[in-house]
Amino acid sequence: MFPSTTPRVLLPLTASSSSRRAMAAAAASSADPPQHQAPPAKAVRVVVKGRVQGVFFRDWTVQTARELGLAGWVRNRRDGTVEALLSGDPAKVDEMVSSRLPVGPPAAAVTAVEPSPADPVDPADGFHRKPTA
Fold first, then answer.
1. What is the pLDDT of residue 25?
2. Which of 5, 29, 61, 65 could bond to 70 as cystine, CB 3.0-4.6 Å?
3. Residue 3 class from Cβ within 10 Å (0-12 exposed, 13-18 middle, 19+ buried)?
4. What are phi and psi for residue 3, nearest 5 degrees?
5. Is 58 an active-site residue?
6. Catalytic residue among 21, 58, 100, 129
7. Which residue in 112, 90, 109, 111 sits closest to 46, CA to CA?
8. In 3D, which of 66, 67, 59, 69 has the Cα closest to residue 105?
9. What are the pLDDT digits (tens) for 72-111?
10. Is the pLDDT of residue 114 over 60?
């Protein structure tokens, strides 16, 4: 009926510790590569001088900061300057401080932008206007 053969005995496979490490390394290398993390947030407090009140400077700052994805706030100061806290991606903060604020909205005449370091704020807070200080 059936051909006569010697019975086969199946033994459980056990991997040595070195081959287990090799298999684990191979599995790790085939996993998804790590995602690039966002750069750490940078924050700068700026005081903007010149003709910067009564020319929609705060509204322009809120709109521009939101377009750049920044968090923080802007407010008028009693001495006639505008103060802002800008927090977020370092390149975007630098763009705002060095390229955008020195120009401002069309009716503004900026004479100085004075930055100083600050602590980053929570990005979930967004960017908003604060009352005059």
1. 57
2. 65
3. exposed
4. -65, 140
5. yes
6. 58
7. 112
8. 59
9. 999 999 999 999 999 999 999 999 999 999 999 999 999 9
10. yes
Q: What average pLDDT score do residues 109-124 get?
A: 96
Any catalytic annotation for residue 129? Answer: no
Note the pLDDT tens digit of each residue in 23-76: 555 555 554 555 666 668 999 999 999 999 999 999 999 999 999 999 999 999
Cβ atoms within 10 Å of 16's Cβ, excluding its own: 8
The full length of the chain comes to 133
Among 76, 77, 100, 129, which one carries the catalytic annotation?
76
Question: What does the alpha-carbon distance between residue 85 and residue 33 come to, in Å, rounded to a whole number?
Answer: 35
Give the helix, strand, coil percentages of the chain, each rounded to 5.
30, 25, 45
